[in-house]
Design brief:
The chain is mostly helical. The protein folds into 2 domains: 63 residues, no CATH class; 55 residues, no CATH class. The chain is built from 4 helices and no strands.
Length: 125
């Protein structure tokens, strides 16, 4: 006997509505004077939604294909690890480039959080 799908039709309706709104917004962004803070918040929100959509898609595909189901939290954590790896590589290249200047405070904050993360990684490895 096949299991009943637990898909929420409201999600599909809202996703389709959001797609239409984002496409309309895309056109507005090209022609309007924009508040930098609002745009930063908007980009952060879009990135969070994009990552959640990717994780939901992966979890759904795994379930559909009969693979072991990964939780969305695990998928999102794996995506963050991948993104952190890529960022670390890019930051390393930036640090070696003479043409890029950094603010010491930002580098000090980054150094502190990297040390803390390194200690947490040691505990997991």
């Amino acid at each position: 006997m096949k299991s009943k799908s637990h898909k929420n039709p409201n999600v599909s309706v809202r996703v389709n509505s959001a797609i239409k709104e984002l496409r309309a917004l895309q056109n507005l962004l090209q022609f309007d004077d924009l508040d930098p803070r609002a745009m930063g918040d908007f980009r952060d929100a879009l990135n969070a939604v994009r990552n959640s959509a990717w994780a939901a898609q992966q979890a759904s595909a795994n379930k559909f294909l009969g693979h072991s189901p990964d939780s969305m939290a695990s998928l999102l954590a794996a995506q963050r690890v991948r993104a952190a790896y890529l960022l670390c590589r890019s930051i390393g290249a930036d640090l070696e480039a003479d043409r890029i200047s950094f603010q010491r405070g930002q580098l000090a904050e980054l150094s502190g959080v990297v040390r803390q993360l390194a200690e947490q990684l040691k505990e997991k490895l």
